[in-house]
Amino acid sequence: MTYRSKITGKYMGMGRLLSGGKLQRPCIVAGERFAEIARSRSPVGRPGQDDHAGLYRASFVVDVHVKNVPFRGKPRLRTGARVMNTAPHAGIVEYGNSKTPRYSVFHTTVDVMKARAALNG
Question: Cβ distance 39 to 33 under 8 Å?
Fold first, then answer.
């Protein structure tokens, strides 16, 4: 006969874990992995024809992000990481316009991360 273990969690302990500083490092590591994939998928441009060739690829930033997430009607601070591109033309590269095609760097990077998680998990 096999016995099944039973785990009972405490909301206060889980809340302290999610809002404490111990999760900052894993979140930053995951954000850096995301930024690395996004850099590899980002367009560079031609140095002779493009005034800011390589600027989009060099402008990925990962930082700690603390977000207010309400739980049971009370505000709770939760730690995470945020990946941004600070290039002035980042929105045009992601979504495109009449002159620039849509590259969807962030959208395709999310798909790659999901596929890698499915293979490893």
Answer: no
